[in-house]
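Example 3.2
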Amino acid sequence: MSLYLCVLDTTSDTEFEGVEVGPYSYFAEVRELIRRSAEKVGIDLNKSVLLNHSDCSGVWATSDLDDLENEIRGLMAHFKVLQGRMISNLNWYVAWYLKSRPQTLHDSVVDVDGNPLLSRICELIRVARERCLPISFQ
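Structure, written as tokens:
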């Protein structure tokens, strides 16, 4: 099973943007990495939008987007200065397939297409704000 995040208008069944994150086990590894970095970037683990949401269903509501973006941007800045490393078989395979050599942790945490995952989530936030829609977990 794989996690897909998207901005979806359920009334018209129109998808405006989506990110194929990868297996749920990969997203769990990413969240654990974030959990270990949270204190360094000022994320309160008890109030974290990113970490305290189920990874298999539901939405990040429009009212959560500001806090979510602040968490993601803090993590992006932190990860961009840390040396890259593969955290799972998915990253290794994507890097091998794309013949890339991530230099930072930001570039190592990728979606299934090899794009930096945190940057892709920021793009989802932008589209969700524009459309006044939540980000759905599917």
